[in-house]
Amino acid sequence: MDISAIARKLGFSDSKNLIRKAAELRRLCDVQFDSSVIGVGEVCKAVMCLEIAATRLGIVFDRPNAIRLSGMSEKAYTRSYNSLQNGIGVKNKLDIRELAIQFGCVRIIPFVKKGLSFYKDRFLASLPPSRRASADFTRPVFTAVAFYLCAKKHKLKVDKLKLIELCGASESEFSSVSTSMKDLCFDIYGTTKEKKDPKDVKVNRELLDVLPEKRKIEDGGYFSDEGEEVVLSTQSIFRGH
Length: 241
What we know:
It is a single chain. The protein folds into 2 domains: 3-88, Cyclin-like (Cyclin A, domain 1, Orthogonal Bundle), CATH 1.10.472; 96-189, Cyclin-like (Cyclin A, domain 1, Orthogonal Bundle). Helices cover 57% and strands 2% of the residues. The chain starts with a helix and ends with a helix. Residues 196-236 have low confidence and may be disordered. By secondary structure, the protein is mainly α.
C-alpha cells in the first residue's frame, strides 16, 4: 500500500511534508534495515515511518489508530517500532521544559536537570577509564526516566506509559534505567520506603544492561530493589536494541 494512502487513513492526507519525510525514512529503512527480521510487513513499516516522521516534525500522532491499522498488538508494535528506530539510527529528542509543561510539573525542572547531571557523573565514575569516552547520554530514555523519578519523588502524578511512548523505549528498558538511576542516585530519586541496606547493594563498575539479556555474575552486576540480580552493559544502555 502506498504511503500516501496509509497517511490518509491516519488523517494526514494534507500533510505533504510529513508524507515526504516518512517516504524518506522508508527508503532509508529499505537500505539500512531488514524489517522482516522483526516480523514487520510493508504496511506496518509505512505506519511506523509515518510515526517517526510525525515525532520529528512535532506533529500529533494517533498511535492507537496506527496500531489498529498495523494489525499488531500494542506491545508488539512498540517493540518493533523501537527496533526499527534503532535500526535506522533515528533518535527521539526530549526537552525537559517541554515535558514539564506537557505534564504540568514545571517546578521540578531544576531537580530533573540536577538529577541527570549527578547520574552522568556517577555513571562515568563507575566505568573503567577506557570505556568512558563511548558513553552517550543523548538517548531520550535517560531524560524520561529522570523526569518520571523526580515527579514521583515530589509526589506528582505522571503518566508513565505516555512517557515511555514519548521516549521510544520499551517498558523493560525504562524499568532498568530507572533501577540504575535509583541505585546510583538514591539521594536524589529514592524515597525512605525504597531505601535498602547499603550492604545489600552490589554496585557494578560496568553497570547494567537495560535489556533483559543476562550475563554471568562475574561479568558484573548489582541487585535490584526486589533482590534480583540486574545487569547492564554500557553497550546496550547507550545504544539500545
